[in-house]
Amino acid sequence: MFRALSSTTVRWRPLEGEGLEHLTVRPLNASVGAAIRAESVLIGERGGLAYGVRYRIDCDAGWRVFSFLTETTAGQRLHLLSDGHGHWRKSDGTALPEFDGCIDVDLAGTPFTNTLPIRRLSLTRQSGTARLKMLYVPFDSFEPTVDGQHYTCLKDGKLYRYEAEDRSFTADLPVDADGLVIDYPTLFQRLSPETI
Fold this sequence. Notes:
It is a single chain. This protein has one helix at residues 115-121, and strands at residues 8-14, 20-27, 36-46, 49-59, 65-72, 77-82, 88-90, 104-107, 129-137, 145-155, 159-164, 170-174, 183-184, 188-190. It is mainly β.
């Protein structure tokens, strides 16, 4: 349904306030331990507070997250590891059972993390709705929580519906051949390739 991943760079801008995200997703040599790495830099603002954030997400070939690192330019840092089957731990090995069952991560301020369940699940219109528990990281506190989210394929490989479990927010997300969000209604807009 999606093409084989090659090194891809995209940018998004928020639709409210100022900001920009510059993301590169690339396949890695198997000797590194990860099959896919996403690295990004974001600047923006939420609730009147400006932020600068870097993140790195490492996945296996099936798009299961097994490591992510987020850090602000002010020095806040969060580095968590997973076995890819919903069991998380801190980088020092401390288990985090409160996140059991969370395969994917959702980082505030970026549309990229929508790609993780879209690629991992390979949903089609016949799949129905996938009900997921996400490890959600807000950029204001860096305190992760569990967030219920639903994904439904509306058009195979092209359009997916995201819905918050509490039904407070729904968005239909068109994606490109890599599964990266093109337009995120009310939140983000992708910049054209020629502007990168």
